[in-house]
Design a protein that fits this description.
Layout (H helix, E strand, L loop, with lengths): L5 E5 L6 H13 L7 E5 L5 H7 L5 E4 L16 H6 L4 E4 L2 H6 L4 H13 L3 E6 L3 H5 L3 H13 L10 E5 L13 H18 L2 H6 L2 E4 L7 H5 L6 E4 L7 H6 L4
Parallel strand pairs: 1-2, 1-8, 2-3, 3-4, 4-5, 5-6, 6-7, 7-8
Helix pairs in contact: 5-7, 7-8
The structure holds 2-phosphoglycolic acid.
Amino acid sequence: MARQFFVGGNFKMNGSLASIKKIIDDLNNANLDGKTEVVVAPPALYLLSVQKLLNAPAQVSAQNAFTEASGAFTGEISPNQLKDADVHWVILGHSERRALFGDSDKLVADKVKAAVGAGLSVIACIGETLEERENGTTKQVVERQLDAIANVIQPEDWKKIVIAYEPVWAIGTGKVATVQQAQDTHADIRAWLEKKISKEAAETTRIIYGGSVNAKNAPELAGAPDIDGFLVGGASLKPEFIDICRVKA
Ligand code: PGA
């Protein structure tokens, strides 16, 4: 079974009501055909307005969510609230959350568990730092991050998960991984899925690449056999995002 190509746009903490409306208008006007699954993640404040403005088949995603359904957790949003607001996707474990806000492997895993438990689909981010790559520990690092998730969810939950491999040194740096570097790690992740989860999970789970993806480098990356799409940061705020969404057209 072919895996549907997936392009996520992570706006991070960027944009305003006006600039985000413009991006969404442009996406709507692009009349994407749905061959590629497109999901955009605006800052939480704008989720509801984007949810209303955005035309199907494109979908909206949160950039984070907490582990609990409700309660005294000032500043957090629960997966259940996202579901209630018709937001069906959430990005979890982004390297900025891990590095700047203390999201540990265990917390990320618990957030993934809570999100799939609430019926959400998850873009689960993993990836090594420059030091870890230079030490030759990329495979161990991504497997450690994946093991943490696998330890707390059920094998069938992987159907709700897209794995985003994002080498930290490539995020926002303009330094994209080579096709070979990305393909090699994606193949390692797929082998991990087969060994730890199931043959079916290995065959069907989308593994997308993130880190300085743009309209210029997307076509070559998209040609690699184990790259099933992209998580796009900076370029998702620009008109070229539409070209990236059409890379498989
Ligand atoms: P970038 O970000 O495309 O700006 O490198 C990717 C990401 O953080 O998801």
